[in-house]
């Protein structure tokens, strides 16, 4: 029992030592993203160009955030595979941590040195499962897949929260985020608004004429169509047509009577 505990502790120490080699690759992007976010917010300040850029990039930031979070899955699988393959060569006991998922009996490691070229040597490692009936089976490839998933799940427990924190670096800050630029009100629009407010404010003491005079409101007088000037102009046009022979005497008298009746 004591030997099993010591072997387990040794396995976990080997795993942690190997896993720590990936820690700088994960921590460095996190530090860079948060430093970039801090510097960007400091430089942005009240700069409308950077604020507008941050506002327009909000949709892209959302895609990047979810991309970083989902990237934790393939990255965890890759790290788990590296732990089993590279770490398993240096320390064959590392894959044995997942052997009980596919072997109900005892699993042992067989190492065999070989030379495939003069001056070149290698080591072949196989994992043999011996069940209760004494039957032996090579479970090397099965153990490779199961151990990869086993260590990938452990890595994901640490990597998912880490990638979530990294993705927050791409979250646009609500404070000071630029809203779409609104058109500035024109002087005429402001004057119209003030005029309407003055008329409909419920102030009964100020006549409407005084309000119009205050805001320099003038009205153009439109002449009705049946005014004397309009009738005279139409009669002149009628006389010109009659003089040119385009209208007969009867038509001339009829049209003239219609124009005079419009008065």
Q: Can you walk me through this structure?
A:
With 263 residues, the chain is mainly α. It folds into two domains: 2-104 and 144-170, no CATH class; 187-261, no CATH class. The chain contains nine helices and three strands; from the N terminus they run H-H-H-H-E-E-E-H-H-H-H-H. A hairpin with a 5-residue loop joins strand 2 and strand 3 (136-138). Helix 2 packs parallel to helix 5 (140-167) and helix 8 packs antiparallel against helix 9. The protein starts with a helix and ends with a helix. The model is unreliable at 175-183 (pLDDT under 50).
Task: Fill in the keyword field for this structure.
61% helix; 3-stranded antiparallel β-sheet; 263 residues; mainly alpha; rod-shaped
